Task: inverse folding
């Protein structure tokens, strides 16, 4: 069974204070690791897909990296508008349709 | 471009009643998914439609849940009769085609409270 564990559960940063969120996973045949952002009262919003170890993707202040066991979402010089819950999910060979999500990391960036 | 639309945004019902949730995917998206988040838990897969056919319904909790997608457009998820443990946020998502099904577009969800 695919599993995703995210840490920390919550993170409070000052504006400009860089940090990283962790996503550890176990999956039978990784077909994709996904990062989503979720704002209160909204559905998850797609950020990145990573497919193989060593891959990196960037979008504005966010950079996602992938190893064989975990993924990191690096946030450089965050701003208050980066405050949200960040979700990690995997798709493996066992479920063609299924995304297995972690519980998420709630990020609060204070001005 | 309109996003995925879900209705209602909130529903409060009593145990034993019936509730029907509706999802309108992005126009032209063949793939439609239902997910659910129970309080304190992670978002979990319920089922996947490709057009009007159920591709995978392995996540459906039990036979009190019935999903339909007549005509391959909008979908409904009916819970009958509702139980307390059915409370949670039900998300619908869609994607353009099987080949590009990685990027899912989610709706804002329906918050279901069963009292």
Result:
């Amino acid at each position: 069974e695919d599993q995703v564990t995210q840490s920390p559960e919550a993170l409070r940063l000052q504006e400009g204070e860089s940090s990283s969120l962790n996503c550890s996973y176990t999956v039978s045949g990784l077909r994709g690791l996904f990062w989503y952002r979720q704002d209160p009262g909204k559905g998850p919003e797609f950020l990145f897909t990573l497919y193989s170890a060593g891959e990196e993707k960037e979008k504005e202040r966010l950079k996602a990296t992938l190893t064989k066991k975990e993924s990191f979402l690096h946030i450089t010089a965050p701003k208050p508008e980066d405050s949200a819950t960040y979700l990690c999910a995997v798709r493996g060979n066992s479920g063609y349709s299924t995304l297995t999500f972690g519980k998420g990391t709630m990020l609060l960036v204070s001005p | 471009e309109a996003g995925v639309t879900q209705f209602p945004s909130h529903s409060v019902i009593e145990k034993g009643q019936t509730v029907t949730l509706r999802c309108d995917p992005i126009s032209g998206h063949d793939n439609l998914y239902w997910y659910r988040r129970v309080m304190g838990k992670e978002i979990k897969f319920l089922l996947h439609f490709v057009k009007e056919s159920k591709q995978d319904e392995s996540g459906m909790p039990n036979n009190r849940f019935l999903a339909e997608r007549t005509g391959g457009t909008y979908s409904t998820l009916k819970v009958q009769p509702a139980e307390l443990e059915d409370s949670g946020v039900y998300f619908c998502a869609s994607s353009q085609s099987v080949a590009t099904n990685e990027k899912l577009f989610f709706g804002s969800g329906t918050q279901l409270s069963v009292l």
In short: Chain B is about 0% helix and 50% strand.
